[in-house]
TrEMBL record:
It is found in: Periplasm. This is Thiol:disulfide interchange protein. Its main location: periplasm. Residues 7-203 form the Thioredoxin domain. It comes from the Bacteria. Keywords: Disulfide bond, Periplasm, Redox-active center, Signal. It holds the Pfam family DSBA. InterPro entries: DSBA-like_thioredoxin_dom (IPR001853), DsbA/DsbL (IPR023205), Thiol_disulfide_DsbA (IPR050824), Thioredoxin-like_sf (IPR036249), Thioredoxin_CS (IPR017937), Thioredoxin_domain (IPR013766). Belongs to the thioredoxin family. DsbA subfamily. Residues 1-22 form the signal peptide.
Length: 209
């Protein structure tokens, strides 16, 4: 009798698992299909873009779920972070991210910058405040300040602003798959569900190619 109950329980769990796996996403529900696709930065690869802001608590809370997923992405998927800039401190923090990227140190200090703002409660709202903090992370202060004010960084800022407009984003964190599909934590149903949506759309694009 006990074995029969156990077998029935397993069958129920199996059916539940199959049902969950069969659940598919729909345009207009979990994601939006852009009317005008945006070109990707690396043709030949499936691009996943995250638009974020260092000062956004939802972006900070998404990091522990997002980062392990990024680390396991297959070689045909290219992940890109783009700072959202809606003016004011958003632009300042966006310039910070682009500067770190231009210096080739973004990956090593990205989490530390998030922690500085959300745990240490540092504003990092001026180049000097940023430079002081980054110096504690082993980043050359003078080099950071000169790069921060460089023509190249200003050019990348304008590019990021244009991409955000093309993606038609209204908040962060927002993900874009292959320049075609836009979705976020709210529309997807949570952090883990957001990545499930991303994986299904990546599979959709891979099948189309």
């Amino acid at each position: 009798m006990r074995n029969l109950i156990f077998s029935a329980a397993l069958a129920t769990l199996s059916l539940f698992g199959l049902s969950a796996q069969a659940e598919t996403i729909e345009a207009g529900k979990q994601y939006v299909e852009l009317s005008s696709p945006v070109p990707v930065s690396e043709p030949g690869k499936i691009e996943v873009v995250e638009l974020f802001w260092y000062g956004c608590p939802h972006c900070y809370q998404f990091e522990p779920t997002l980062n392990p997923w990024i680390a396991k992405l297959p070689k045909d998927v290219h992940f890109v972070r783009i700072p959202a800039m809606f003016g004011g401190v958003w632009n300042v923090h966006g310039q910070l991210f682009i500067t770190l990227e231009a210096m080739g140190v973004e990956k090593s200090v990205h989490s530390a910058v998030f922690d500085a703002i959300h745990v240490q409660k540092l504003k990092l709202s001026t180049p000097e405040e940023m430079a002081d903090f980054l110096e504690t992370q082993g980043i050359d202060r003078a080099k950071f300040l000169s790069t921060f004010n460089s023509f190249a960084v200003k050019g990348q800022m304008e590019r990021a602003k244009k991409l955000a407009v093309a993606y038609q984003i209204t908040g962060v964190p927002t993900l874009i798959v292959n320049g075609k599909y836009r979705f976020d934590v709210r529309s997807s149903g949570g952090p883990e569900q957001t990545l499930d949506v991303a994986e299904q759309l990546i599979a959709k694009e891979r099948a189309a190619n």
